[in-house]
Design brief:
The structure is a single chain. The chain is of the alpha/beta class. It has 13 helices and 13 strands. It has two domains: about 110 residues, 3-Layer(aba) Sandwich (Rossmann fold); about 120 residues, Nitrogenase molybdenum iron protein domain (Rossmann fold), CATH 3.40.50. It is about 40% helix and about 20% strand. Strand 2 and strand 3 form a beta hairpin. Helix 6 runs parallel beside helix 13 and helix 7 packs across helix 13. The longest helix is centred in the middle third of the chain and has 27 residues.
Length: about 300
Amino acid sequence: MICAVLLATLGAGCTQLSSNQTTQSGGITVTDDAGRTVTIAQTPNRIVSLAPSITEDLFALGLGDKVVGDTTYDNYPPAAVNITKVGGFSTPNIEKIVSLKPDIVFASSLNNDTLLSTLSSYGIPTVVLDPHSLTGILNDLSLIGNVTASIGNSSALVANLTQRLNKSTATSTATSTATSNATQTRVLYLVWNDPIMSAGADTFEGDIIARAGGINVAKLANVNGYGTMSKESVVALNPSIIIANSAMNSTVIEQIKSDPALTTVDAIKNAKVFVLNSDVISRPGPRAFDAMDQIIKIINQAS
């Protein structure tokens, strides 16, 4: 169940190639988020996406008409639902991918080395995207734009999102500066409840909480990446806000609120448990900036 939830889970505006992207005769060579050097011989016209967030990136960049394959989890924008499915994004069907004759595959960190090497053996370049922050999302949008010769679209989108980021961060910084560290809002982002799983250090959700002016209690609990926390740790860290993703239904949310082990937690006592759309909060794509705005609003209202 946890895996299913996670699955359902700098000059970025510059039009020039960044230091990890170089042009070569007849193509472009990039370094992806896995540190792999990938050469794309020609501008891709047929693209396969192996993560919902990547599909959202591609559509946001105006490349939806070039996406010939995506995963069974891809549901946004609505047009993504009608694209040929290649399986789950951690277990895609290699034969199906190859049959679509893609010029490039954009993969996530959940896709293993066997998949990447197999696609390489078919001569299909694969670029891994794995952003761990909002800045990382911006960088990946620029990377996709350069790889697909959509630099104009990517520069415009990145500039817009960067403006939103700077404006929102300035607002939340002013709010948190006026608040002492002792009273700054402690936030628990709940990926799942049994066991309690959260997003700690080195996650884009953790970055969102920090930029929104909150203190991420999972990071205080030394959770790196996505990991579990004991109920005792949650009680000790005493978050004043709990943000749950909507992958947990209302019954589960009520179980959290009524859990005898958590009744002393301020967020529970003061009815400060909020539910956000899981697709918006758990996908490292353009809508993560919507999640940032929502969390800023929640923190400001709760302070």
